[in-house]
């Protein structure tokens, strides 16, 4: 598959130094987003649906709710419910402790790094203006990016040549599209998708046909941009038939964290209990 839009972009491409300077300010704004994100409590609702060859017939999946908050200097993802069933306070305490231990282990092994959309690596010289696009009532700039090492880990000293080659091939299949508010240098939507996994081994047995993931930012408060939702879609073909995977995550009910305050956040759709609603001080 040809990199979508590339030929059209070449005719209207801005000078490299101009777009690199613009994107430098965009990434600085992303750093601000990341810092502000840790100043708020929020809720998360995650849903995974796996379907087979018959469209609309779920094979497997789940619905989970989480609460995000800062505890002991770490941003903790605390489970609240699974498929509408509340998780006990004791189990939540155990899961929160496990989460913090994982974060501490990560910090010991290497410098902490942002993950996912907030941590995607961008390099100057690989950006292309793709015109303007309307998105949810806003006129935004569309910028495409072709990564060289967006998912590689420069800090991993154990990577061998085979891993490096895999990373290089994987990155070549990706296209990153950003819709940006030019006045605020703010990424409003970021989408990562592929245009072919021909390099993967074992395609005669399992074939990864498509992959796409996107994040949307919004303003729940004035002058504060925070994640609103993340969506992912993938399709796999096997000898036994095809599978499609759809993952959606929504972040909502943001509230400013206040030092020394007790934060109460009952689970939606569940019977509220004292243990379920109490949050760490």
List its salient traits:
single chain; 42% strand; 5 helices; 281 residues; globular; 11-stranded antiparallel sheet; alpha+beta; disordered N terminus
Strand order of the largest sheet: 4-3-2-1-11-10-9-8-7-6-5
Query: What is the overall pLDDT average?
Result: 77
The structure class reads alpha+beta
Total discrete domains: 1
What sort of overall outline do the alpha carbons produce when their principal axes are compared?
A: globular
Order of helices and strands: HHEEEEHEEHEEEEEH
% residues in beta strands: 35-45%
Helix share of residues?
10-25%
Gap between N and C termini = 52 Å
Number of helices: 5
Low-confidence stretches: 1-12, 150-157, 162-170, 196-204, 259-281
> Oligomeric form of this entry?
single chain
What is the radius of gyration? Answer: 21 Å
Largest sheet: 11 strands, antiparallel
DSSP E strands, number: 11
């Amino acid at each position: 598959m040809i990199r979508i839009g590339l030929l059209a972009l070449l005719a209207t491409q801005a000078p490299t130094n101009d777009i690199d300077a613009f994107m430098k300010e965009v990434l600085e704004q992303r750093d601000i987003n990341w810092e502000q994100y840790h100043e708020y409590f929020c809720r998360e609702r995650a849903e995974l649906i796996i379907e087979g060859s018959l469209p609309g017939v779920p094979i497997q999946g789940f619905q989970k709710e989480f609460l995000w908050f800062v505890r002991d200097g770490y941003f903790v993802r605390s489970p609240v419910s699974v498929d509408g069933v509340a998780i006990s306070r004791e189990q939540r305490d155990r899961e929160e402790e496990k989460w913090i231990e994982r974060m501490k282990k990560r910090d010991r092994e290497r410098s902490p790094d942002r993950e996912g959309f907030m941590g995607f690596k961008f390099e100057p010289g690989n950006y292309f203006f793709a015109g303007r696009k309307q998105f949810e009532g806003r006129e935004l700039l569309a910028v495409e990016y072709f990564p060289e090492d967006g998912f590689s880990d420069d800090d991993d000293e154990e990577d061998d040549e085979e891993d490096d080659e895999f990373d290089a091939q994987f990155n070549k299949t990706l296209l990153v599209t950003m819709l940006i508010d030019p006045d605020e240098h703010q990424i409003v939507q970021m989408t990562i998708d592929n245009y072919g996994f021909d390099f993967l081994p074992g395609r005669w047995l399992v074939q990864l046909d498509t992959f796409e993931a996107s994040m949307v930012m919004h303003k729940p408060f004035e002058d504060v941009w925070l994640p609103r939702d993340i969506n992912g879609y993938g399709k796999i073909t096997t000898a036994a038939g095809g599978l499609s995977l759809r993952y959606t995550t929504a972040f909502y009910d943001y509230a400013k964290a206040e030092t020394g305050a007790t934060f109460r956040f009952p689970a939606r759709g569940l019977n509220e209990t004292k243990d379920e609603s109490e949050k760490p001080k």
